[in-house]
Structure formats: C-alpha cells, structure tokens
Predict the 3D structure of the following.
Amino acid sequence: MRTMLLHADLSRYAGQFVWLEMNFDRPENQEFFSRFEASATPTFYVISAEGKVLSDQPGAMSETELRAFLDRGLSLVQSRQTPADAALARADALLSTKSPQAVGAYEEVLRVAPPDWSRRPLAQYSLVTALQINEQYQQCSETAAREAAVMKHDNAFANTVVAGMWCLVQGDKTASWRKPAADKLEPLAKQALASSETVRDERNELYRTLMLLDLSQNDTAQTASLEDKWLDELNAVRPADDEERSAVDIARVEAIQIYGDPERILPALRSSEQEMAHNYNASMRLAQMESAAKHYDAAIAACGRGLARDPGAAGRSWLLQMKAGALKQKGDSAQAREALQQALQAAQEIPSQSQRENNMKRIKQALEGV
C-alpha cells in the first residue's frame, strides 16, 4: 500500500487534506487507535477538524478506490450529499464503533441508492464487512456472493469476495449453509484472481482463503496447486523497496503455514534478511521458518540477529518466544525457560494493553510447559 501511495497522483487534493500516517506499534499512537477502534492494518480514515470520523475503510485499496474514498470524505465536509450519501455516512459512523446496527444501516443505503450510484460498490463491500465484524457468518457469505455477482470485477469486487470467503472459512464447518455458499463464492474468488485490477494484498487473501477452504474439505491436491500458483506469483515480484519485500515475504510465510514445505521459501527469506540489514522482522520470519523446517540452531541464530537489530518491546518479546521454542525443541529446557523469562520482561513494556496482556498470558502458559 505504501508503495502505491508514494506514486499515486493525488495532486487534485492539494490543500484539502492534512495527511497523517500512524504506526500501530508506537506507544504515543495508542490513544488514537483506542479512540477510533482500529482493528486492522491498513485502515484509512477521513477525520474532520473536530475529530469526528467522516468515513473509514479497512484493507488495501487501488489508486482508483483511494480517490473515490477521498471524494467521499470531501462530499461529507462540503455538504454535497444525496440521500444515499447521508445514509452511507450514518452507516459508516455505526461501523466505526462496530455496532451491530451497521448491518441494517448499510442495507438501508443500498435500498435508497440509485442503481448507478458511484458509491454502491463501497456500500456493498461495507455491508459484508459489517456482517463479518458482527460474526454473522452465514449471512455474510451469502450476501457477499449475492452482491459480488453483480459487481464490476475491480478491487471493490475483490474486497467483497475476500470478506465473504473469510466468513466461509470462519463459520461452522458442519453447517448446512456452508457448501451452497462455497459453491457460489469459490468461482467468484477465482474470477477476482483473474482480474488485473485486484491488488496484491487482496490476491494474497484470496489465495489464503481458497487454500483454507480446500484444506477443510481434505482436498490437499487442490491446496498444493493453489500454493504453487501463489508462490510463483510472489517469486515473480521484483520488490521496489523494503516495504514491498516484507509484504512478499509475509505472504510466503502465510502460504507455507497453511500447507507446504518451509524449505521452499527459506532461500528467499535468507536473502531478504541480508538485504534488510536493520529489519528485525526479516530475522523473525526467517527464524519462524527455520524452526518449522527443524533447523533449530539456525532459528536460534536468526533470533539473535533479530534481537541485535533494535526491535521494540513487542519485537523483543516475539523473538525471545521463538528462541525459547527452538531451544525447547532441542531439549534445552533450562535455556528455553530463561528466554521465556526475558520475553515476559519485554512483554511488560509493550504499550498496547491488549497486546501486552495477550503476550504475557501466552508466555506464562509456555513457562508452565518447560
């Protein structure tokens, strides 16, 4: 996303927005994320001078979608609203607080909006997102299939299908509604992959959910085929910068975590760690896959390099937990326990309360096991 933002032509918005980028891990930003209830990265907001969220949208966007999102914010500020615009603003306000009432509000938007309304695709995607957030998995999957079937095959279409696919994956595996919904959504997911307008982040999510769906049906041959296609796509990417290199490596790890041999991606991860000499995340990803491949000494060494790259409290905690896991697998319980105690100390310094509590709980459970 950052690469697209750096190269996007947004000159027509000069002087109309104050641009602000917030890093989720920095302590000074936690009040913002708590206030605006950001639950995913990236999430985009248009916020008024009074601090009111006028519109927000989670997930990656294409440049065309970003312009539409900014135009939507401007229309709210400048009071150039149709009844559908006003209804969308009310629905967005409810979604920003994860209110269950957002579902009905977006249904009202689609009811009052004319068929050719330019923001209809956004409202369709937002309705599916509201259903997903409120864990209405059956309605989410069925709504995504219904709405996506009449959408243009652009990135908004891909976003809608992805949200529906995640509801399919997260829903009850034994439910009777699951197969009919899958029969409708799976072809749409493949159509989204075939579209040149689907951005990389959404392509990754489509591959992920398709693989998880096939694996849940014990179709390992199709799962392996999807993994091959996904890794081939990722290997064809020539990263423009470290940001893009990291995004590709994250996707590689996600693919292998679902199904496959970690040996396949170790050469790429080792190369990335060398290329990104100050990036502790590159060492952490490598350590994770070295452990998965049962190269425990290599994993411990990668954790050591990551710890030398000045990670924050969360990064130190994760690296030390990975180190402890590799040490435990080697049978060195004493050093594993020492690493976990260091991880616990680091976790106590994590600024985000939820991250801090989750890390500490996980580490204490791990300590009981060694």
